[in-house]
Amino acid sequence: MSSRPSLIINRLDAERLQRLIDNADDKDWTVAEALEKELLRSEVVDPEQVPEDVVSMNSRIRFTDLVRKRQLTRTLVYPHALASTEDAISILAPIGAALLGLRVGDTIDWPLPDGSVSQLHIDAILWQPEQHKQFHR
Asked: Which pLDDT belongs to residue 137?
């Protein structure tokens, strides 16, 4: 696997995600553990300091799965918001965990549960809470 791009994560997201990780059940543990490693290597900043080109929680993102040659648009959400958000992807889904903290233009190789590796490229952020001053959503 190639080296991973640097990550920037909103402090409030990091705190909420750590609670989610701490309470993960057996079916989510593998992704939760990978997410925790990503949190540990990230730069954690106050919500007001998140650049507009960074994927944060509740961001709507256009990205390309380079392995499968598919462009997707998804909103990165906490598991409880999956049912109420159109085109949502959970942070506890392998692809969801891979997206957090990346910047537009970044590419990341991410292991999948079946042993394969996905390669994801961030094409655009279509909506980001911090950009719209929604710092405590």
From this structure: 63
